[in-house]
Amino acid sequence: MPEFKIQHITKYTYEGPVRDSANQIILFPIKDDYQEVIKQELNITGNPVVDTHTDYYGNEVGSFTYSNQHNMLVINSKLVVTTRQRPLPVNDIFPEQQWEDLKRLQYMVPYIDFLKQEYFEGLPELQEVVEQERRKDETPFQVALRFCGWVYKNFEYIKGVTTVETTLDEVWKLRAGVCQDFAHILMVMLRQLKIPSRYVSGYICTHSSAMRGEGATHAWAEVYVPDYGWLGIDPTNNCVANETHVRLAVGRNFSDCSPVKGVYKGAYGHKLEVSVVVDDADTIVFEDKAHETPAVHAVTEFSKNSYQRYMEIIQQQQQQQQ
């Protein structure tokens, strides 16, 4: 039973004095049969009172306001979490029956939200991919693994190329992004086949250099498998999310699971730094992870997002080649 010590620091530095910083935090790991929180310490600048409640999706959500004038806000979460490996679904039992079971879920309240998909311009193209990649004789679990592999192979993992505000159309055109983009694309594919899928935020706890997503919050998808339940699928690393993935929250998409978000009064510009360290809490080094980690305020530091800057660079390179 693995035990992980996790330190997650979110630091806002403002260009000038600010006040009335009102924030929502989802930094409290899910507690269930496969994940246990042994200890958690939460330290916030000014020591404001944190009120907590459970949201519609079962996540523990905190809220606080720091009213005093300040130039910096630091939210420091320290965790000790144990996880348990969950058994995988049986692959090949009665595929037709499993698809029939999924049809009945379309009208059941716990699953409706995880089947809805907003339209975007690239959806028809992605629907064609879904039809090409699916196999009629496979179970929903097998299809989910196939789609996971397709996203992993066809999208390039590039930090900073997208932000939390990047649309699905932009991600589809880029064929690149980070963990939250990979998860969103996979969920679109699954929902086209009426497989309930939900977004998960959390941490990946492994020191393998081959695994993407360390040093920041991570994101993946969970798929509902008939006669089994919810199972995590990580398209960023093309694997099942199991005992090395620590879950913070689940929801329809990123906006339901953002670890930190809020508003404040004062100076327009600010700098966001986020660091996540597993096992060694004494070696925290701040790095700018604003684009990889879904934790932003209502006001962003740049007038152009990184997608726009990336496209400008591509256009300039194309012009130079002409």
UniProtKB/TrEMBL annotation:
Single Gene Ontology BP annotation: proteolysis
Residue ranges constituting the Transglutaminase-like domain according to the UniProt record: 171-237
GO molecular function, one term: peptidase activity
Keyword terms, alphabetized: Hydrolase, Protease
Domain of life: Bacteria
Transmembrane segments: none
Keyword Hydrolase: yes
Pfam families with a match to the protein in the record: Bact_transglu_N, Transglut_core
PANTHER family reported in the protein's UniProt record: BLR5614 PROTEIN-RELATED, SLL1049 PROTEIN
Name of the protein in its database record: Transglutaminase-like enzyme, putative cysteine protease
Protein source organism: Mucilaginibacter gossypiicola
Native organism taxonomy: Bacteria, Pseudomonadati, Bacteroidota, Sphingobacteriia, Sphingobacteriales
